[in-house]
Write a structure and sequence with these properties.
The protein is an alpha+beta fold. It is globular, with a radius of gyration of 14 Å. Strand 1 and strand 2 form a beta hairpin. It has a two-stranded antiparallel ribbon. It contains 3 helices and 2 strands, in the order H-H-E-E-H. The chain has one domain. The longest helix has 8 residues.
């Protein structure tokens, strides 16, 4: 469902599958054991450059996806 929502809203994404090497470990490093997990990379301008960050959305949550991406 998350993948469909992203496609329907023309949002570029990189899909990773638990079956791929290292992906399960990456998910566990984020502190999660469930999917889907969406990591939104952010960039905000500040006085001396930009601040990079990320927001993690767990589960299929249209409201949070829209807040972070639209």
């Amino acid at each position: 469902m998350t993948k469909s929502w992203l496609k329907n809203n023309n949002i570029a994404f990189i899909e990773k599958s638990i079956g791929q090497e290292g992906v399960s470990e990456e998910l566990m490093a984020l502190g999660y054991k469930v999917t889907p997990v969406v990591v939104v990379k952010t960039s905000a301008p500040v006085a001396r450059g930009t601040v990079e960050g990320e927001r993690v959305i767990v589960g299929y949550n249209v409201k949070k996806l829209a807040e972070a991406l639209l």
